[in-house]
Design goal:
CATH topology: Rossmann fold
CATH class: Alpha Beta
Number of helices: 5
Distance between the termini: 30 Å
Strand order of the largest sheet: 3-2-1-4-5
Strand content: 15-25%
CATH superfamily: HUPs
Shape: globular
Length: 166
């Protein structure tokens, strides 16, 4: 699945709801919320998966192999998540895969690369550790840096509760 940087342009005024794809449990709630909002506003969903930067490597070939494996894992996960979006919205999502630090890549995508993105949808963890590092960064230290609103969906919401508020 290739990065769709040269994606089809959406119609003027179409809302694009961006979800960050990761291994978290709360992804399901954020994704459902984004899909429901996209359907009800004639918008679309975009997915971002950020592969962490490569760790210290002694040999370039090993680093390249590790990078390729992480990219393949990202593509596999995005295929699954994209099929969920397709089923829930009837549309294929826009897909982005980046390598680097998640907060930096997210800000670059939204502020510099894709002007069609109109809302960032994140899931908040429900555990005692807090809402998660990305949510904490974006509503704490990074608050106000994005040009789009952030919707934070509690990870404890049921499908029925999400349906009722969207």
């Amino acid at each position: 699945m290739a990065d769709k940087a040269a994606k089809e342009k959406t119609d003027e005024g179409t809302r694009t709801f961006l979800c960050v794809v990761d291994e978290s449990e709360e992804l399901a709630q954020a994704l459902r919320f984004a899909c429901r909002r996209a359907v009800h506003s004639n918008g679309r969903v975009a997915l971002l998966y950020v592969v962490g930067p490569a760790e210290f490597q002694h040999w370039a070939a090993v680093g390249d192999l590790m990078r390729e494996e992480r990219r393949e894992e990202a593509e596999e996960m995005l295929q699954v998540v994209a099929s969920v979006v397709q089923k829930q919205t009837g549309h294929t999502p826009v897909i982005y895969i980046r390598e680097g630090k998640i907060t930096e890549e997210l800000i670059t995508l939204i502020d510099d690369e894709d002007n069609d993105i109109s809302v960032l949808v994140l899931g908040a963890a429900t555990g005692p550790e807090g809402p998660g590092p990305l949510v904490s960064d974006l509503v704490g230290k990074m608050a106000g840096r994005l040009r789009v609103p952030i919707t934070i969906v509690p990870g404890s919401l049921t499908d029925e509760q999400i349906d009722a508020i969207t």
